[in-house]
Amino acid sequence: MAGALERSTRDLTEKCTVENAKRLAFPLLAVILSLHGLGFYFSQQSGYDTCDVLLTTGYYLTPKQWQPKGCMMHKYKAGEIGRCLQNQRVAFIGDSRVRQLYNSFLTEFTGKEFHDAIVHSDLSHTEQSTNTFVEFRWQPHINDSTIDLYQTWISGKIQKPNLIIHGAATWAIKDFKGEFSAIEQYKTNLSKVALQMDTLNKDPDVKIVWILQAPVVEPLLSGPRKVITNNQIDLYNDVAYAQFRNSDIQVWQSVRKTAYFSQSPPKDGLHVPDDVIETNCHLLLNWFCNKDIDPADATCCKGLPFPLTLHQKTLIIFFTFCFFGSLFMFTRVKKKHVRQPPDAALCEAGEGQLANGQLPNGHVKEIENRQSEEMSSNEELYNTFVALTKFGVILAYFYICDRTDLIPKEQKHFSYLQFFVAFAYIAVVGFFFDRETKQPTLLNRDQTEEWKGWMQLVILIYHVTGASTVLPIYMHVRILVAMYLFQTGYGHFSFFWKKGEFGIVRVCQVMFRLNFLVFFLCLAMDRPYQFYYFVPLVSFWFVVVYVVMVIPPRATVKTAAEHPTHYLLMTVKLAALFTVCALIGFSEVLFQNMFNWWPMVKLFAWPGTSLHEWWFRWQLDRYVVGYGMFFAFAYISLSSMGKIKDNNPANLFSPILTAIIVIGSILAIVVYTVHAFTCSTKPECNEVHTLLSLLPVTGFILLRNVPGYFRTKYSSFFAWFGKISLELFIGQYHIWLANDTKGILVLVPHYPTLNKLVSSFIFVCIAHEITSITTTVTKWAVPNNTKVVLRRFFLFCAMLVLLLLAGV
Question: What is the pLDDT of residue 349?
């Protein structure tokens, strides 16, 4: 029994591989996309779009954060509202509830508080800076006065509004004490007004919205208002909805839900809380303004990003070519696998080379070698075409997720519970998969992969939970970015210092691996290179490390062994690097002048032509890469001198010194944590972070490596994620998060936890597949042949220049 259970467990473990996971992810994703596609198709057939979503459905993510179904809304600022409403006229028509919306609208627009200074009368406000006229018309009943108002606009006696928000019912309920005859009269009058509204709405410059009535809090109603029951409100709403549902007048239904599901304390039973009115105001602004203002963090009511750009069309052609290329190479490879008959070899050799009716042995080997090389070349090209075809499908998925309305998006909402539960979960799982490393050296490969893995998972949690709004968490994530950059300096310096290989092949291989995914995403997603800031950052610092090492006289371990003065030379180079970083860091103007030339400004400017974002990212951790180089230099030098012996599982130093270093490391981390909790603003925190970040980086390394027990252990779970950390970091922008990281992708609606599990599973599988594709394509694109690499390098540079000239 025990043996059978053990065999079953072993069989299950063998089947739980990443390849099998990817085989499961593909059909699962196909089913999900098909379901979303069908839903999208039928919604389009019925004329339903994300504009309708804003004013019809939704729910609260938090007590004060409203989420339209399937899309993201923007919280408008005064300047944006001014741009939207420039030279526009807006009219609010109705009772005191509509007046609430009018006041909130003006408060958001002007930045000044508006209150009910005069009740039961018309109000108006003109914003001179934008030539915007906003008015409120006191029309608590639907009657002849309402009809006359619309007729004056239709006739042109008064300039017609561009946006009309109209709603009324509670006064009819109150004045007629909820009598049934009042509903019939309301229906008759509304049908007459609807004719005027339809006529006015035919003007392409006019939009009309009818507001359904929000529910009341019946126990709080007093006096004559007690007759305004929710049953009565529902009857009047049914009349209005029936009147307008088949017309072009937009019926605003979500005002009922924003009020009904609100957890804010009610005011007087009739009027809705101020935060609900504010939410309604932003729903209206998103509905009216999104197509013109195009806010970056909104997807509601913006439409599809068609037509495709020239770069996107070019990509379609390129990947189509790869697909047919893979089919063609498949036939060649399969054909070559069929062994050539002897007659074919004879024909190739030529009759003059026959000896006794046979080929010489040397020539037979030559033919076999040539056939083997040709077979290898064909298979490599076939594998490359297949990899690129897969990559094209993956890019199409990126586009579908983040540039169309096919997949719903949801706004982020932060909670400490959500963040720390996820953090604790990955920590427990990671520690469960502890392993003994085969290389107990300081910062060994297993450990650095683990380091990158857990950092990347924390960054993913940070992004998906919207934790950037919490300053201490933001500052600790800044440390994780600094640690990544430390590894950039440490790893590349170690390679150049130990190997002494400075050829163009190594440089191109590293740059290709770093930029392969981002290069195609820039084209497919129509984003600038600097948008994916981390890749430009590590690419830049790799070039800096290379330049420092390659500048003559070159110093390596080998040359230093022969000429000890090369240790001093390397120290001078590192000191010069720190000095240059310090001098440039004091002046943003100097920095911008260094990059403000073509094509650098095209690569590093964002948004628009601004280099400020690139300056901010660069100067924030400008010393940590150099510090990583210095750390590697010191460690390798001390190891070669026998001062550090880390090829065994023992502590690096004596017990007393080890204890002192461990305590000091913990204090170094605590110092930064105290700083993160005590600084008050991001600029203030970041200013100190540049130098202070070296403390927790050093503290973590020493804490992780000085005690032998910690140095010889690593988490295989975190290390696995570390191998695909770059693809996870970049891929999250579009296929795990949404709208360029501003929202969350919703593959499984209505079930948040299940959605995170499914979308995370698919996301990780795709990231792993991209890593495999990058490895395959790199072998073909950057082979170990300097002449071939140089030719392809210049070809790529020419292509890049063309893309930059075309405005990529």
Answer: 46
Structural contact between residues 690 and 475, judged by C-beta atoms closer than 8 angstroms? no
- Rounded to whole angstroms, the Cα distance separating 482 from 475 reads 11
533: number of Cβ within 10 Å: 17
Q: Do the beta carbons of residue 250 and residue 264 sit within 8 Å?
A: no
Active site residues: 96, 268, 271
Domain edges within the chain: 51-293, 407-805
List of the chain residues with pLDDT < 50: 1, 5-6, 8-9, 12, 339, 342-355, 357, 359
User: Which two structure tokens, joined as six digits, stand for 296?
Assistant: 């970056």
Say how far apart CA 619 and CA 133 lie, in whole Å: 46
- What CATH number has the domain spanning 51-293? 3.40.50.1110
Q: Which two tokens stand for residue 374?
A: 């040709």
799, two tokens: 């292509």
Burial of 347 (0-12, 13-18, 19+ CB in 10 A): exposed
Degrees, nearest 5: CA angle 304-461-667: 145
Pairing of strands 163-167, 123-127: unpaired
Beta strands, E only, 170-231: 207-211
Supply the DSSP symbol for 162.
S
- pLDDT tens for 328-375 read 888 877 766 554 554 444 444 444 444 454 545 555 555 555 555 555
CA distance 257 to 267: 17
Name the pTM for this structure.
Answer: 0.89
Measured between alpha carbons, how far is 252 from 279 in angstroms, rounded to an integer?
Answer: 13
